[in-house]
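Quick one:
INPUT:
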């Protein structure tokens, strides 16, 4: 029987093969692996290299309109992870993902409108976006609505 590490290595290798053939889900999965490496890296160079590789895979998947990859690209630019912080690029990716009913993107956009971060403050738009995220099952959106938009 294979060990956990061997199974994990096989899974990563299979996703790499599929990613190289253009599979958007595998490109996103490999991006997440590199993002995890970056988040756990001990050295700045290693962190930077891993974020760059992650971003490259997310961009490949995003070109195929994979909403989860679009959302993660928004996070990278929003938080300045491996890239210069850029609220306009973050907004672009969040909006694209939100148009595809990505609940985390809807929630993030809603909080941006609620706080006026990178967009004009608009409580009506915030409530609309966060409500849609909550309807899609986003737990933080449900809590946000309970805390800030209760009647």
């Amino acid at each position: 029987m294979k060990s956990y590490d061997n199974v994990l290595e096989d899974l990563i290798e299979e996703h790499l093969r599929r990613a190289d053939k253009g599979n958007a889900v595998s490109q996103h999965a490999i991006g997440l692996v590199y993002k995890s490496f970056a988040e756990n890296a001990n050295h700045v160079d290693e962190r930077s290299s891993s974020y760059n590789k992650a971003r490259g895979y997310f961009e490949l998947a995003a070109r195929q309109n994979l909403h989860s990859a679009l959302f993660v690209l928004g996070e990278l630019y929003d938080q300045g992870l491996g890239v210069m912080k850029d609220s306009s690029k973050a907004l672009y990716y969040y909006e694209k993902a939100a148009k595809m009913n990505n609940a985390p993107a809807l929630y993030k956009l809603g909080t941006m409108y609620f706080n006026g971060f990178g967009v004009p403050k608009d409580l009506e738009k915030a409530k609309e976006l966060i409500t849609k995220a909550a309807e899609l099952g986003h737990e933080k959106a449900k809590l946000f609505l309970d805390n800030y938009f209760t009647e």
